[in-house]
Design a protein that fits this description.
about 70% helix; 18 helices; 3-stranded antiparallel sheet; about 400 residues; mainly alpha
Length: about 400
């Protein structure tokens, strides 16, 4: 690049409007915003700021192309994917609105965005770890576990929660968190049988790892593919499948260690739990979602509502229309509720969409498919894997139908 072109690029980048677009794009990408929502939100913002901009997003980068009467420039920002943080997403959405309507300048928007990114977690570490175990135990209830399975699953969840907190301080350790969690989950699950007697250890492994399974990532990737964001959707899908493979390899290693060093036993069916444990589990899981995804405490009611809508609309849809259509019906119900909430409160629909979809996503089905492959059941694994994608497509179709029934007011 010659000095004249470089000078032009620097002059463009120093425009406060462009700097705000780039900063907010990087922030939204960090918290897992899907490509089509991020690009729509930034395109609308650029239009309101009288900029002609093209936005291209992937899970690990954002390109912002700016065109003026005299020149054109493209800015690349690296995005480091982080945890979903709903409270910060709400604040970023508010900042976009304030800049769009002129309440604050783009320069002030940049400073406030950086301040939001630097805010610490609103919840103490011990509470986040506690919620990992509670969510895992509740997932065990959904999957048909009994008292023994629920107890061991909670222990696995707490162990994984502690590992994640420790990994935040060590980059190299963080890269092994999925593998290490798979090893520990399988070792604890099969080792517990020597203490409490035979029980359903495979179910316990699945429920204990439910938080790390990339079902939500796979669903988001299929949503991006359905909206023709091919690059982002493909990259996110491959990333999700890679996480699934790493977890599965860890489980295989942990199972081998346990079977070599500990007494073996044949798994038995879990004791059936009473019907009233399901609504209690939904309530507890939704409350834990508020902490794990760092939402505002005031949003707990909406997140509980979304979880109940997902569970009972899925049950109704599956019993009346079959599993695939039933999942699409449940996703549509969650999507409609989310869009109504977003239109009436002017807040991101993700506050309802995220907890609702977490109930429906095919993470557990994907893990069972991988387990079948590891057990040399190729046909069973392939059939289950196809089921994962059908569930993902059902959820995406339901959400797209929801946007037709109740059109969202904003991109986020």
């Amino acid at each position: 690049m010659d000095h004249h072109a470089l000078h032009q690029t620097e002059r463009i980048v120093r425009d406060d409007r462009i700097e705000f677009l780039v900063t907010i794009a990087q922030a939204l990408g960090t918290y897992g915003t899907s490509a089509h929502r991020l690009e729509d939100a930034l395109s609308q913002c650029a239009e309101r700021l009288n900029l002609k901009a093209g936005i291209f997003s992937t899970p690990t980068s954002v390109f912002v192309s700016i065109e003026t009467e005299s020149h054109r420039s493209t800015i690349l920002e690296r995005v480091i994917p982080g945890d979903i943080q709903l409270a910060k997403l709400v604040k970023l959405d508010e900042l976009i609105e304030l800049v769009n309507d002129g309440s604050i300048t783009p320069s002030e928007g940049v400073e406030r965005t950086k301040a939001v990114l630097n805010e610490p977690s609103p919840y103490p570490t011990w509470l986040e770890v506690l919620c990992f175990g509670v969510v895992s135990g509740n997932a065990c209830v959904f999957l048909g576990g009994g008292p023994a399975e629920i107890g061991v699953t909670a222990i696995i969840g707490w162990t994984i929660g502690i590992m994640i907190q420790l990994a935040g301080k060590n980059r190299e350790f963080a890269r092994l968190i999925e593998f290490g969690s798979g090893v520990l989950a399988a070792t604890i699950a099969w080792g517990a049988g020597s203490v409490i007697g035979p029980y359903n250890a495979p179910l316990t492994v699945l429920a204990g790892l439910i938080i790390l399974l990339p079902g939500f990532t796979i669903t988001v990737s299929m949503s991006e593919l359905a909206t023709r964001n091919i690059v982002s959707g493909s990259a996110r899908l491959i990333g999700g499948l890679m996480v699934l493979l790493i977890i599965g390899f860890g489980v295989a290693v942990g199972t081998g260690i346990a079977h070599t060093l500990l007494p073996n036993f044949d798994p038995v069916d879990a004791v059936e739990m009473p019907w009233w444990t399901v609504p209690i589990s939904v309530l507890l899981a939704a409350m834990c979602f508020v902490v794990m995804f760092r939402a505002r405490p005031r949003d707990v009611g909406m997140m509980v509502l979304a979880s109940f809508i997902a569970v009972y609309s899925a049950q109704f849809g599956s019993s009346t229309m079959g599993n695939q259509i039933g999942i699409a019906f449940a996703a549509a119900c969650v999507g409609v509720a989310s869009n109504v909430y977003a239109r009436t409160t002017n807040r991101p629909a993700a506050i309802l969409t995220l907890p609702g979809l977490l109930i429906l996503v095919p993470g557990s089905v994907g893990f069972r498919s991988l387990t079948a492959f590891l057990d040399a059941d190729t046909l069973g694994g392939l059939q289950t894997a196809i089921g994962v994608f059908f569930i993902g497509v059902s959820i995406v179709i339901g959400l797209l139908l929801a946007n037709v029934i109740v059109q969202p007011r904003k991109a986020l």
